[in-house]
Amino acid sequence: MKFKAKVYVRLRAAVDDSAGNAVRQACGRLSDLDIEKLRLGKLIEIDFDAEDQKYAEKEIDRLSDRLFANGVIEDYEYVVWEVSDN
């Protein structure tokens, strides 16, 4: 079966996002928006084959925990869905 997944990785709220702060300051120079907080994250998109939905989710969770996110400072969430063979 064919699947797609999106994994969203974000810094935990207690972790300072220095890159996000730099982007927020740059936004202030380029826009009139009053941006109080801006945090950056990662979006990982995956196309893959798996035997079923349960196995697909288990493996995406394993990859997210061990590879995509740093468990000390980041949280992750994911969505996995089956796609047609077209």
Structure keywords:
2 helices; 3-stranded antiparallel sheet; 86 residues; alpha+beta
The ordered string of helix (H) and strand (E) elements is EHEHE
**CATH architecture descriptor:** 2-Layer Sandwich
CATH superfamily: Phosphoribosylformylglycinamidine synthase subunit PurS
Round the Cα radius of gyration to an integer and report it. Answer: 17 Å
CATH class: Alpha Beta
Helicity range? 25-40%
Structure description:
This protein is an alpha+beta fold and 86 residues long. It is 34% helix and 34% strand. It has one domain: 2-Layer Sandwich (Mth169, Chain: A), CATH 3.30.1280. The protein is elongated.
Summarize the structure.
The protein is an alpha+beta fold and 86 residues long.
List the helices and strands and how they pair.
Layout lengths: L1 E10 L6 H13 L10 E9 L3 H16 L5 E10 L3
Antiparallel strand pairs: 1-2, 1-3
